[in-house]
Amino acid sequence: MINTMAVDEYPYMNTGETMTLDPAAPLRFSILTLFPELLRPFTQEALLGKAAQKGLLECFLYDLRAYAGNKHHKVDEPPYGGGAGMVIRVDVVERALADLHTRHGPPDEVILLTPAGPTFDQKTAETLAQKNHLTLLCGRYEGFDARTEQLITRELSIGDFVMMGGEAAAACILEAVARLRPGVLGDEESHRQDSFSSGLLDYPEYTRPAQWQGQAVPEVLLSGNHAAIDRWRRDQALERTLARRPDLLAQTPLSAQDSATLLRLGLSAEQLQAWGAATPPTPKRKRQSKTP
Ligand SMILES: C[S@@+](CC[C@H](N)C(=O)[O-])C[C@H]1O[C@@H](n2cnc3c(N)ncnc32)[C@H](O)[C@@H]1O
To answer: How far, in Å, CA of 160 to CA of 227, rounded?
Structure first.
């Protein structure tokens, strides 16, 4: 069924007063989509729902059709020059953004979701988590008229594949950015050790049972020796990253101890030097016992 809800009927819309941005305010997402109902449960459940209840996050879903400017709520037209599919009109997006600005003030960013954009990553998530108000434009069909570029601050892709619409991409960005805001995760520390946050992939985790199908949890994790556990985890993160994403190591600050681990794992001293890694500690020589 085509969603033809007018903007003022839409329950997620705010009352329309103009707001000024406040650094202490919740992180606000305004999402423009042809299918707001796809995203609504996503914003209401689990930690995103809890963050909204705690006043840490606000998600406004805007139905693009409400800005179509015609009684059939039609937002797309065939491409000039011919070819398959339909293209979303730039004037529809312009009207939607103008309304959004009136309601919430100018957003910090207007982000157009497209497979042709730079790939969204943890660094971008960290940058966006510093903002107060992000607007996400979800496309459908063949995407947006190219002139929409003049209305946005950046494009983002969530990977080298093509989906049918931008809603899943918006959901990814919403999750990745919101979890970096203080108070959203139960444990403030947990995102700092996640893959990419430290520059490395995360280390492997284990929980009960300690024995499963003949496989035991690594002994060090049961030792209670926290210094040994921290070193084991760091070494595992280095090993995983070297095996799966060696490209990440070049951008990660590596301590002398990390260098020693990487040398042991087969990386060359020249490579470590090229990455600016700290020099590994020289192994302590065993004292020669004096022969009588
Ligand atoms: C079928 S796609 C359009 C693809 C476009 N013709 C192209 O080849 O670049 C429809 C919409 O889905 C969204 N989309 C699809 N894949 C995406 C991706 N990897 N990252 C972000 N958005 C994506 C975009 O909003 C896009 O406008």
So the answer is: 40
Q: Is 249 helix (H, G, I), strand (E, B) or coil?
A: helix
* Percent of the chain's residues with pLDDT above 70: 89
Q: For residue 159, give the ligand 1 atom closest to its CA.
A: 19
pLDDT classification of 244: cutoffs 50, 70, 90: very high
Statement to judge: residues 81 and 164 lie in one domain = yes
Q: Answer yes or no: do 143 and 24 share one domain.
A: yes
Provide the 8-state DSSP code for 63: E
Which residues lie below 8 Å from residue 241, measured CB to CB, with a gap of 6+? 200, 201, 248, 249, 252
Q: 165 CA to middle of ligand 1, Å?
A: 6
Q: Are residues 156 and 33 part of one domain?
A: yes
Same domain, 174 and 127: yes
Q: Looking at the structure, do residues 33 and 127 belong to the same domain, yes or no?
A: yes
266-283 pLDDT tens trace: 999 999 999 999 998 887
In a domain, 238, yes or no: yes
**Looking at the annotation, which residues are catalytic?**
115, 142, 179, 194
Is there a domain that residue 290 lies in? no
Q: Is 64 in the pocket of ligand 1 (CB under 6 A)?
A: no
Q: Does 146 sit in the ligand 1 pocket, CB within 6 Å? A: no
pLDDT digits (tens, 9 = 90+) for 42-84: 999 999 999 999 999 999 999 999 999 999 999 999 999 999 9
Stated pTM of the model: 0.88
